[in-house]
Amino acid sequence: MAKAIKLTVNAIEALKAGTIADPQTPGLKIERLRSGKLMWQYKRRYPAKSPIGTVNALAGVYAQMVGGSYPSMSIAGARTWAADLNAQVEYGIDPRAAAQAAQAEAERLEAKAVEEARVSALTVNEVHRRYMEAVETNTHRVVRRKSKKVGMSERTKTDKQGLYDRNFEKIIGARPISTITNHDINRIIVGMSTRAPVQANRSACEINVFFKWVRSIRGRIVLDINLPDDPCVDLPELWNQEGERERWLDHDELPIWLEAVAGEPKRHHRRALLLLLLTGCRRSEITNCPTANVRNGMLIVTANRAKNGCEHPIQLGPWGWSLAQTNGEWLIMTNRGEADGPMLAGWDKVRERVRVRMEGIAGRPIEPWTLHDLRRTMRSHVDELVDSSITERMLNLTCSPKLYQS
User: Domain 9-109 falls in which CATH fold?
Assistant: First the structure.
């Protein structure tokens, strides 16, 4: 009987061809390949009996594995590797199947980690940016509408972005969208409800529409993400009761208001307030109006700036036409001049100064009013003179035909 060769470094290096089995470790051997490379091999028959029943079906079948190369895998390393395989074989486990399962599990965990990293990088700010891109292309709608209107007006887009920037961006904007819960959204809306209930309602509507898009089919495709839970599901319970606003300047207050406006020191403030009353326009339709839209005796609210998306030409009388004259690029410029563009902020201070001046003129308290109340004032007085359907067209509440040629 041939004497077994002891597995040593010298024996391995002296091996020119064939294999050397390791007497110390069952199934382990090293083979010199035709390329000259030394590779560790494992081959062992499954035992006929085993603690588990599946071994009987494996009786007579060899367990075979290829290990690393020598000397990258040392003798000690090869023995440890083979010992693990022997432990599996003793229990009737196929080492190759176990290795494949382990590799599949490692790949699954790696893919899961990559996906979690991708989803974590998808912050609320990033998702909202993509949502606004969908708004720009009018692909954000979840419910199909029969309206012929295409897209949103610029004013509505600005309002949507403003609601998000003011009320959500600083609180949840930097967080992964997958981590946003009902509690996060509810806390924001409840906090707003105590100080600005109407604004809370508007914000609740906007964030609900946003998350509906995120969870819609189109949103899931665009974002490649699936949110299983709706963080806005409780918002209907947080709705704040809103009273219908009916404030307008009646026959007694209107002369006082005109006198108070006349005392406003800055001309562009006076022009803006008077144009709001005479035209019945919304504030942004006047304060953000380019002078190019004042022509041919008309002030034209373009479709992209109108709330209902319908272009609205307003015929100006002599006084309105005189108030609309300016040499700048904008109808109402800032206090600092034309270089800073239109005057979009600071109107609450102007309004309050006029109200205080009204109290001084009237000698009595004056109920607070807003710039939008001037639109209501125009409608209330005009309704006394003409049919309300005409007033609605004057206020662009119904789309009217074009009355001019551009």
Answer: Double Stranded RNA Binding Domain (3.30.160)
Distances (CA, A) of 222 to 82, 155, 160, 161: 49, 25, 20, 20
The pairing of beta strand 294-295 with beta strand 298-301: antiparallel
> In the chain, where are the structural domains located?
9-109, 124-238, 253-394
The span from the first CA to the last CA of the chain, in angstroms, equals 111
285, 294, 330, 334, 350 from 327: Cα distances, Å = 19, 12, 8, 14, 23
Yes or no: say if 342 and 332 are a contact pair by the CB < 8 Å rule.
Answer: yes
What is the mean pLDDT of the segment spanning 19-37?
88
**Structure-block tokens of residue 199:** 């604004």
192 phi/psi in degrees, rounded to 5? -75, -30
> Do 353 and 263 meet the contact criterion of CB atoms below 8 Å apart?
no
Reduced to 3 states, what is the DSSP secondary structure of residue 76? helix
In sequence order, what are the residues at sequence separation of 6 or more whose Cβ sits closer than 8 angstroms to the Cβ of residue 285?
A: 155, 279, 301, 305, 306
For residue 386, the 8-state DSSP code is S
Positive or negative, the CA dihedral 112, 116, 119, 121 is negative
Express each pLDDT in 347-404 by its tens digit.
889 999 999 999 999 999 999 999 999 999 999 999 898 888 888 888 888 765 444 4
| Distance set, CA 64 to CA 44, 88, 91, 98, 204 (Å) | 7, 12, 15, 12, 64
> Which of 367, 368, 285 lies closest to 324, judged by CA?
285
d(CA 138, CA 309): 13
- Full-model pTM: 0.52
SS3 state at 81: helix
Asked whether 371 and 351 are in contact (CB, 8 A), the reply is yes
Strand, coil or helix: what is 136? Answer: helix
CATH number of 253-394: 1.10.443.10
What single-letter amino acid sits at 204?
Answer: A
Show the DSSP H helices in 280-313 as ranges. Answer: 283-287
Q: Return the amino acid letter for 259.
A: E
Question: Which whole-number Å values give the CA distances from 74 to 67, 161, 200, in the listed order?
Answer: 11, 64, 70
DSSP-derived 3-state class of residue 176? strand
